[in-house]
């Protein structure tokens, strides 16, 4: 017998939340995606904004349930746009649970907002409690406001290194120009669908970074070094042998042929230069 209706696509309902310091652009990123517009005036989110846009019609102001198609699946996405201000902690903490995706945002011109990412993860972890599992959640990091290139203080490799070493997606975005926004959401939704189809576990391909924690930590340490001694990890006044030994160890760890961690090439060059500079002055 012929069925009267077309088989509906496998549908899926997912919950997504936004996280990050106040004023980094969380609401603007969501607005850019849902409403294709940008608001330059800052309107702090009070507590949580939740929304639905259905068939591109905005049902309620600031509401964002989006219907998207990923492969053969129809997905209904509920976006909860959280306030970044510490004052709203009590409101936010209710919303962490049952989340499949997190949009983690920082402002590339504001170091503090980048440094705060770890405490956002900690807040979520704490609220989920001992039985909560962050491995079942897809995280996408948005390095936002890339249009303000003059004030940029966190470069791409630094942000990418942080994200990828945690197995998170990373995108450079501007809610103002729209750069990166659609690509970010597409990849994000695709990963969430992969996760759901994989029984709620992050698929192996993006659950582990293609570089080691030691490599990531070393690159970060080199970035933060004040001088060549510190960069090579030797005491000031160390001997030629000590410098060369430290250099060889770092060179093996960070050589661009061996290490694919973001920023490894610059770190490697810095180490080569540090060694040259030190050896020049050691008799
Ligand atoms: P809370 O709701 O307080 O947590 O802040 P939020 O993260 O939602 O920030 P919001 O989206 O409201 O944006 C804060 C300010 O940054 C606004 O004045 C926006 O116009 C501006 N802004 C957001 N994204 C961008 C961007 O990509 N580029 C530029 N230049 N400004 C942006
Ligand atoms: Mg907001």
Q: What is the CA–CA distance across the termini? A: 92 Å
**Shape, per Cα inertia axes:** elongated
Number of strands: 9
Ligand catalogue = guanosine-5'-triphosphate, magnesium ion
Kindly estimate the percentage of residues that lie in beta strands according to DSSP.
15-25%
Helix content estimate: 25-40%
Give the topology string: H per helix, E per strand: EHEEEEEHEHHEHEHHHHHH
Biggest sheet features: 7 strands, mixed
Oligomer: single chain
Q: Report Rg.
A: 22 Å
Q: Which residues form runs of ≥5 with pLDDT under 50?
A: 52-63
Mean residue pLDDT: 87
Summed up, the helix count is: 11
Class inferred from helices and paired strands: alpha/beta
Describe the secondary structure blueprint for this structure.
Elements: E1 10-19, H1 26-35, E2 48-50, E3 53-54, E4 57-58, E5 65-70, E6 73-82, H2 89-92, E7 101-107, H3 111-115, H4 117-128, E8 138-144, H5 156-165, E9 169-172, H6 181-197, H7 204-207, H8 213-223, H9 228-232, H10 240-254, H11 264-281
Parallel strand pairs: 1-6, 1-7, 7-8, 8-9
Antiparallel strand pairs: 2-6, 3-4, 5-6
Helix pairs in contact: 8-11, 10-11
The structure holds guanosine-5'-triphosphate and magnesium ion.
Provide key terms for this protein.
283 residues, elongated, binds magnesium ion, single chain, 11 helices, DnaJ_domain, 9 strands, binds guanosine-5'-triphosphate, 7-stranded mixed beta sheet, two-stranded antiparallel sheet, alpha/beta, GTP-binding
Question: What would you say this structure looks like, in words?
Answer:
The chain starts with 9 loop residues before the first strand and ends with a helix. Mean pLDDT is 87; it is low at 52-63. The chain has 11 helices and 9 strands. By secondary structure, it is α/β, with parallel strands linked by helices. The protein has helices at residues 26-35, 89-92, 111-115, 117-128, 156-165, 181-197, 204-207, 213-223, 228-232, 240-254, 264-281; strands at residues 10-19, 48-50, 53-54, 57-58, 65-70, 73-82, 101-107, 138-144, 169-172. The strands form 2 sheets. Strands 1, 2, 5, 6, 7, 8 and 9 form a 7-stranded mixed sheet that branches. Strands 3-4 form a two-stranded antiparallel sheet. α8 (213-223) packs across α11. Magnesium ion (MG) is lined by residues 26-27, 45, 81.
């Amino acid at each position: 017998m012929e069925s009267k209706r077309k088989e509906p696509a496998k549908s899926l309902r997912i919950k997504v939340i936004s996280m990050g310091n106040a004023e980094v652009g969380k609401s603007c990123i969501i607005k850019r995606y849902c409403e294709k517009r940008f608001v330059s005036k800052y309107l702090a989110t009070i507590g949580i904004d939740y929304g639905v846009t259905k068939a591109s019609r905005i049902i309620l102001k600031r509401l964002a349930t989006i219907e998207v198609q990923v492969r053969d699946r129809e997905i209904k996405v509920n976006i909860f746009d959280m306030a970044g201000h510490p004052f709203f902690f009590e409101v936010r903490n209710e919303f962490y649970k049952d989340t499949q995706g997190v949009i983690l945002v920082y402002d590339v011109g504001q170091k503090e907002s980048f440094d705060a990412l770890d405490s956002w993860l900690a807040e979520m972890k704490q609220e989920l409690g001992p039985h909560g599992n962050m491995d079942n959640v897809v995280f996408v990091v948005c390095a936002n406001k890339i249009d303000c290139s003059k004030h940029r203080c966190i470069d791409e490799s630094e942000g990418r290194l942080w994200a990828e070493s945690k197995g998170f997606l990373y995108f450079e975005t501007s809610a103002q120009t729209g750069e990166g926004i659609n690509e970010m959401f597409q990849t994000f939704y695709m990963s969430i669908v992969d996760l759901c189809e994989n029984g709620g576990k992050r698929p192996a391909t993006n659950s582990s970074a293609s570089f080691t924690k030691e490599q990531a930590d070393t690159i970060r340490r080199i970035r933060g070094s004040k001088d060549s001694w510190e960069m090579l990890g030797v005491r000031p006044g160390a001997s030629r042998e000590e410098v060369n030994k430290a250099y060889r160890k770092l060179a093996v760890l960070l050589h661009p042929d061996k290490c694919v961690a973001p920023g490894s090439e610059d770190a490697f060059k810095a180490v080569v230069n540090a060694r040259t500079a030190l050896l020049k002055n050691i008799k």
